[in-house]
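Shapes recur. Our protein:

. . .
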Amino acid sequence: MPELVGAVVAAGRLCRQPQPTLTVDELTVRPWRPSDATAVVTAYRAPQIQRWHVRTMDDAEARAWVASWADRWAAETAASWAVTDAGGVLLGRTGFRSVDLAGGSAEAAYWTMPAARGRDIAARALIAVSGWMLADGGLHRLELSHSVENPASCRVATKAGYGYEGTRRQQALHSDGWHDMHLHALIAEPDQSGAIR
């Protein structure tokens, strides 16, 4: 059956270029490295990360998780970055757990190490990668969902420019039962110069 609308982003637009490293103030937002696996294990021991991301990780799982991101970039199905300080210490994660080039959309995800919270790290890193995905990646719509019980994630979404669109009732199963989820989105909108902002 013929398509009446073509793909928003042509296949190959992401994978033909290296995943970028971005600098945001004192933060480095870079592709994952095998050496990050130990810090990822530590991150997923934190109760808040476990609660909202509904998992833990042992060493082997963390190594596989970190390694998977390069493959997912190459397949153009996801994009994830490590967020570090100037010394290379892992502060958090930002990126897109899924990317749909044909539809021109992606779903954002992020977390911050407990010791790094309260410094707008998640919001600043999300702003950087969202801007890149809209302008350089060519996507049209970025979404994120978070539990209504997670006001910190709602603040990150709002600070990063993701507008609230509504509540999805009982959308996600967490360890304490079904959670309603807020839906936020950021749409590519050209400024007066024609650049995507």
Q: What stands out?
A: The helical segments are 37-43, 47-53, 59-75, 121-135, 151-159.
